[in-house]
Amino acid sequence: MTALPAAGPGPIEGPLRPVDAIFDRLLALHPKLIDLSLDRMWRLLDRLGHPEHRLPPVIHVAGTNGKGSTVAFMRAILEAAGKRVHVYTSPHLVRFNERIRLAGTLVDDARLTQALAQAEEANGGEPITFFEITTAAALLLFAQVPADILLLEVGLGGRLDATNVIDKPLVSVITPVSIDHVDFLGETVAEIAGEKAGILKRGVPAVLGHQPREALAAIERQAARLGVPLSVMGEHYQAHEEGGRLVVADEAGLMDLPRPRLVGPHQIVNAGLAVEALRVADLGLPAYAFEEGMRSAQWPARLQRLGPGPLTQRAPEGVDIWLDGGHNAAGGQALAAALADLEDRVSRPLVLVVGMLGNKDADAFLAPFAGLARELVAVPVPGEHKGAAPEALAEAARAHGLDASTAPSVAAALEGLAAFPVGAAPRVLIAGSLYLAGAVLGENGALPD
């Protein structure tokens, strides 16, 4: 039998902190055998006095790609309207604190340590996954700090995810579903969508991003069983770019908004989904909040242009460096479309620097870059992760017609760009894993805030 994924801490910058000792103890509690249920969560939440019953109104977000960006847009819009917003996302990039935002501010070490210690004591040493016990600690914090709304992102799947303990959210959101985590969610898009649809609650409205036909059918079946009103992109609402603006239209009317700050055509879809979710939530938000939200939304390592830092200075002068955590087929398609758009605006040779986990489909991720990227440099994913061998990634790239090589690190890959002729400084995309993205941000001295 297979152990559930631990979803433990990613890269940690600097010296160890007191909270890291708790993380080590919590990781040691991980169940040895698979147990797909919410029983551990219910047991722990009961011992903690059911903080899930004392939360502000919740918007629950599941899906394969775009969850974090959609949450980032909603947060920016809500905060522009003066709302105090709790946010729960995963995984983190550099520090665990990024997962928990309390009324607009990342949780500090002292408050985080206290909540984790309380959850650890209540658990009493019983088997529990890292994600489950840290989610319980997050819910405890969200119940303790006043806020107007909680944006709650699913960790894995939906039906049996540790976040799926909310009785009646304001609205459920499902971003586009694609193939990922097949060991735990199923081998087909329909099976995976069925797991995502597990967050739907009886009578609670749900907003869906663009879905493959079989995914939509699976979600619609679950919605029909529960009497869930659906708002489906392309059917009940539309979102598209027009004249450099974002246009979102539904039965309530049309919104003409600034183009989203986040880069790439896929962010038009994510922004439209966020706007529709908040309209369905019926919070009475002013129009200016939607406008400001489009201008101010930030989400690190999602086609983020890297600025000067210890890592980027290893590249030759003039190299344009971008970072993204994309790692599956849909992520590859979205990134390739975004890079093609950048190529249309300012033409540069494209070099991929890719590191991936061993359980990801490298071939599916790389396929959209055929004919777009000039070459690929495969690197290992830093840390104690089961990364794909760089040579295997390079071989997959060659199968798609890319020149490919390996390097021992991202820094070495950037230094190797000196081989490009003068005047042909490339555009570089570092991608393939959120763990790799976190390591890059940490090494470049860019900590998310």
From TrEMBL:
GO biological process, one term: tetrahydrofolate biosynthetic process
Catalytic activity: (6S)-5,6,7,8-tetrahydrofolyl-(gamma-L-Glu)(n) + L-glutamate + ATP = (6S)-5,6,7,8-tetrahydrofolyl-(gamma-L-Glu)(n+1) + ADP + phosphate + H(+); 7,8-dihydropteroate + L-glutamate + ATP = 7,8-dihydrofolate + ADP + phosphate + H(+); (6R)-5,10-methylenetetrahydrofolyl-(gamma-L-Glu)(n) + L-glutamate + ATP = (6R)-5,10-methylenetetrahydrofolyl-(gamma-L-Glu)(n+1) + ADP + phosphate + H(+); 10-formyltetrahydrofolyl-(gamma-L-Glu)(n) + L-glutamate + ATP = 10-formyltetrahydrofolyl-(gamma-L-Glu)(n+1) + ADP + phosphate + H(+)
Functional note: Functions in two distinct reactions of the de novo folate biosynthetic pathway. Catalyzes the addition of a glutamate residue to dihydropteroate (7,8-dihydropteroate or H2Pte) to form dihydrofolate (7,8-dihydrofolate monoglutamate or H2Pte-Glu). Also catalyzes successive additions of L-glutamate to tetrahydrofolate or 10-formyltetrahydrofolate or 5,10-methylenetetrahydrofolate, leading to folylpolyglutamate derivatives.
Keywords: ATP-binding, Folate biosynthesis, Ligase, Magnesium, Metal-binding, Nucleotide-binding
Cofactors demanded by this protein: Mg(2+)
Ranges for domain Mur ligase C-terminal: 317-433
Pathway: Cofactor biosynthesis; tetrahydrofolylpolyglutamate biosynthesis; Cofactor biosynthesis; tetrahydrofolate biosynthesis; 7,8-dihydrofolate from 2-amino-4-hydroxy-6-hydroxymethyl-7,8-dihydropteridine diphosphate and 4-aminobenzoate: step 2/2
GO CC, any one term: cytoplasm
InterPro entries, A to Z: Folylpolyglutamate_synth, Folylpolyglutamate_synth_CS, Mur-like_cat_sf, Mur_ligase_C, Mur_ligase_C_dom_sf, Mur_ligase_cen
Designated name of the protein: Dihydrofolate synthase/folylpolyglutamate synthase
NCBIfam families: folC
Pfam name, any one: Mur_ligase_C
Gene3D superfamilies assigned to the protein according to its UniProt record, in alphabetical order: Mur ligase, C-terminal domain, Mur-like, catalytic domain
Record-linked SUPFAM superfamilies: MurD-like peptide ligases, catalytic domain, MurD-like peptide ligases, peptide-binding domain
Domain Mur ligase central: 61-275
Record EC number: 6.3.2.12, 6.3.2.17
A GO MF term: tetrahydrofolylpolyglutamate synthase activity
Protein family: Belongs to the folylpolyglutamate synthase family.
